[in-house]
Amino acid sequence: MTPNRSNRLARDAMAFVLAGGRGSRLMELTDRRAKPGVYFGGKTRIIDFALSNALNSGIRRIGVATQYKAHSLIRHLTRGWSFMRAERNESFDILPASQRVSEDAWYRGTADAVFQNIDIVESYAPRYIVVLAGDHIYKMDYEVMLQQHVDSGADVTLGCLEVPRMEATGFGVMHVDEKDVIHTFIEKPADPPGIPGNPDMALASMGIYVFNTDYLFELLKADAANPSSSHDFGKDLIPYVVKNGKAVAHRFSTSCVRSEYEAEAYWRDVGTVDAYFEANIDLTAVTPALDIYDTEWPIWTYSELAAPCKFVHDNEGRRGMAISSLVSGGCIVSGSALKRSLLFTGVRVHSYSSIEDAVILPHVTIGAGSKLSRVVIDRGVSIPDGLVVGEDPEIDAARFRRTEKGICLITQEMIDKLV
């Protein structure tokens, strides 16, 4: 679709991004950082997609709630997202869990994260609140969703994906009528309800909600006073609105932003090491499913100051080259070959190495003569000379975190144990 440039409703909205989750299925990648702060796509972080969608949609009030191991994420946000200007009626607030309501209360759930910051949200007086999960990869024009919310007279509008019915068992699933009014909202059902007229598909929640601000505040205050609540949007607030108000589903296919090169409505939860690896490697295709080169809908981020990437040596067996790969600034590929790989900022690959199907995070050094395939290497790791990964599953599993699909996650602590 063509992005909506009128931004009539977006200027009256505030985006509240929930970015406190650990993402434990990413294993050691989230030992030092929250899932929204994990690197993705060669130079961005996962959270940059939700934030860029808000900015590109015309929303100029943004708050980000953080909690789990937030330093890396907060540092990224302060460096990359501090360009909002109060004199232009813009704001960007980082909202760490800081016991603002009670001395013993961190954020107890997604709804509580918004409740604890009601006074900050109120100070900006937005008419609408767009609640966003900060840990998914997609491009979406929230103005389209806001317009549907207003036109339908909904109390809450839920962003949803159309997925094969039996693949929806891990989502919150909506049972809707022909007008997409939600009659039931079920968390992780064993037998998901189908879509009217398309029973083999189901509507799965994206974790995106649009509320009128006044209505949301009433819900949050009532929820905070309920001792039996888990203070979660999906478990508590949304089922309440479905039962007692009007909840409407918004289909992602109607607001997904696609360039001329994107055939599908792209959305990914990169919540496992395998899914994270696959989504990154997919970007190396000639025509990837996600177009990160789309200048009409840019993905904003913090870009480190770095020299251009460099490829050196041109001798047989020692040639710096890359095929179907993304290589960021500050990288030096010295007499080695890359294939279907992503190198984030400042990676050094020394001579006579072979790198294939690799996701290499910033400031990694790869020693001479290494042979690495199907790997994810965490930030700052020093790979010793001659290391071989991807040829012997048993050896790989004994040394590194090896997934069911044969991807090896490598951290510095794992390398240190090899010595």
TrEMBL record:
Signal sequence coordinates: none
UniProt-listed Enzyme Commission number(s): 2.7.7.27
Catalytic reaction list: alpha-D-glucose 1-phosphate + ATP + H(+) = ADP-alpha-D-glucose + diphosphate
Pathway(s) this gene product operates in, as recorded in its UniProt entry: Glycan biosynthesis; glycogen biosynthesis
Assembly information from the UniProt record: Homotetramer.
PANTHER family membership: GLUCOSE-1-PHOSPHATE ADENYLYLTRANSFERASE (PTHR43523:SF2), GLUCOSE-1-PHOSPHATE ADENYLYLTRANSFERASE-RELATED (PTHR43523)
Name this polypeptide is given: Glucose-1-phosphate adenylyltransferase
Organism from which the protein derives: Roseateles agri
